C-alpha cells in the first residue's frame, strides 16, 4: 500500500523562510497538490508579493487550532529563533 500526502501545511515567519518555502509552495500548487500556507510577521506580506495566499496567524493558539483542524499529513516550517513566534 502506497502512502499519500493529501495536505501539506506550511508555516513561515521571516524572509529567510519565505525564500525557501515560497518556491516549493508555488511548485506544489502548480502540480495540483493541496497546501495550506500559514504565516506571521514579515512573511505574510512577502508571500503575498510572490502571488501566494497565506492565512495570517496571530498567536500560538490560533496556529495550533489551524494545524489540528487541518488534519495535515505533512508540516513544513521556517522561522528564526523567535521565542514569541506562533
What does this structure look like?
- This protein has 86 residues and is an alpha/beta fold.
- Helices cover 40% and strands 20% of the residues.
- The chain is built from 3 helices and 4 strands, in the order E-H-E-H-E-H-E.
- The chain is globular, with a radius of gyration of 13 Å.
- The mean pLDDT is 87.
Gist of the model:
The protein has 86 residues and is α/β, with parallel strands linked by helices. 40% of the residues lie in helices and 20% in strands. α1 links the parallel β1 (8-12) and β2.
What distinguishing features does this structure have?
40% helix; 86 residues; 3 helices; alpha/beta
Q: In whole angstroms, how far apart are the ends?
A: 36 Å
Percent of sequence in beta strands: 15-25%
Mean pLDDT score: 87
- State the major sheet: 4 strands, parallel
Bulk shape: globular
Helix content: 25-40%
The structure class reads alpha/beta
* Sheet with the most strands: spatial strand order: 3-2-1-4
Per DSSP, the total helix count is 3
**What is the H/E order?**
EHEHEHE
Radius of gyration: 13 Å
Count of strand segments: 4
Spans of at least 5 consecutive residues with low confidence = none
Give me the secondary-structure topology.
Layout: E1 8-12, H1 15-30, E2 35-39, H2 43-49, E3 55-56, H3 60-70, E4 74-78
Parallel strand pairs: 1-2, 1-4, 2-3
